[in-house]
Amino acid sequence: MTEGTIERKALGLRANGLVGTTIGVLIVVALLLKLRLVFTLNINWDEFYYLDSVHIYRRGELALQLQTFHVHFFTWLADISANEADQIVAARLVIYVLGLGSSALTYSIARDFLDRNSALFAVGCYLSFSFVVEHGASFRADPIAAFLFLGAVCLLIRSSQSWFASIAAGVAVALALMVTMKSLFYLPLFAAILSVRLARREVRGTALRDLGGFGGSLVVGFAVIFLLHRATLAAPAFDAAASLIERSAEKVIRLDELFPRRIFLFRSFVEDGILWLILFGGAALLLARAIRDRSRQSRDRLLMLLFLLPLATLAFYRNAFPYYYVFILSPAVVLCGVAFQHVSSQDGAGRRSPILAFVLALVVFGSMSRGYLSNMADRIQPQREIIELAHRLFPEPVAYIDRTTMVASYPNVGFFMSTWGMEQYRDLGRPIFRDAIVKQRPLFLIANSRSLEPDGDQDWLRAAGVALFAEDHAVLRENYVHHWGDLYVAGKKLRLSEGGQSVEFEILIPGRYTLETTTAVEIDGAPVPPGGTVDLGAGAHRARTLSNAGQEVILRWGERLYRPNAPTPRGRLFIGF
User: Fold this and answer.
1) Model pTM?
2) Are residue 15 and residue 107 in the same domain, yes or no?
3) What CA–CA distances, in Å, run from 207 to 152, 200, 299, 331?
4) How many domains does the structure of the chain reveal?
5) Is the preceding omega at residue 331 within 30 degrees of 0, hence cis?
6) Buried (b) or exposed (e) across 528-554, using 16+ Cβ within 10 A?
7) Are residues 415 and 493 in the same domain?
8) 109 with 83, same domain?
């Protein structure tokens, strides 16, 4: 070997080291920016709904057996703060730590097939996808399941080295199934990985052992965990779990429509076009090499191609919203590392082109920075203020109405107004809120959905198919008055005509009401001065003005309820998809 050759190799090693260091630094920067988003990114309605299960469990009322296993690990949230927004931020920190674990597992899986720099690049690509930027640390089932799956994939790939690995992988998948039933979508990947191993005659015995260990621990582990979880719940029906699976499958599996959430897929293609090109470019390279070469290395390439299987669920899964990509992009991003390893190599002899690799890394992370930096502003504070006001107005838990249980420590009236929830509501075919108000007497309403705005225009919502039934919207309009921001409280708005003619009105929520008017009003025959209070029982009442002029008056539940002097927050409480 000549002195010049040695020098070139030394320079190449130093350049590759610089590329690896650069990618590592950029990953650290991405993780630090993601940590910032934990404290600033607008809390999605799903996160409040996920928190609600924890509070229901603490109250001893949780009966849902599936997709609620997380409650056992988050019961401490209510002790962190009385404000549910702060509780979710604390939960996000836990999910963030799991995200660090997912990044490490992605790197570990990629290193089984790729060099160090390419494995790091795969991790960087995962952290750069816009939907992962926005939802990678969200308090949802998806990041938890992603961590468990990556752990299972990592164990299963290396299960030939230890009989215990396949058993641990099965238990990890069983836990993931308890966290979310969409984990079923990963089972074909595990079956394919084991099938590739079985196809290799020299390791068939070990592969059969791993198949038995994985399958057995999955079935037994799920049964044991399910029964232990069920024993802690509030007497659920025996067949409730099977019924939930059946109903969920009917709703979320759409075989009559290709890519039911294609709007989000197209959005990702626009925002993450470079990343998708790199990923599918890596897949194309693997496929071409696997066709040409049928060696053991070809089987490794086939194994990496199998990582694309979860992405196929986008074709039929109804709930493929942006947060779902956190769940399915891992471990497919390993194929990004394949493309990186290829473009950083000039020829089959393995000579590297560090400059090209360096440029590619900067392009990807430049795309990533847009997603992180555009979300630095604090968009949680308006949500925190509304929740804080609700707790101040009603220090003890009272019933209320909103779309998603923002005040999770209080009992919510109504239903979870997701797209699925609205479909079920419309399928019911009848109004529900009058009976709910009469029976449960919700004292306030948070209009965190346009459908719930008592004074809102419902025409365009009806055209979009997301409006409440007219009777439900009318009962909200007639029994709640605006208080501050998006918070309404129980009350009546009456238009009293001149001449003292009585107006009849109905009270659905009994209690003490404060009269807001400029002159005295007679209610049920007794004069009430401006700012005075009157006790009103459920049922019909009469009011008339004691002046010569007509006037509009408000009867607001409570005795001169506190209202902040600060201006109401601008914008909507929920921002996002």
Assistant:
1) 0.91
2) yes
3) 16, 9, 14, 21
4) 2
5) yes
6) beeebbbebeeeebebbbeeeeebebe
7) yes
8) yes
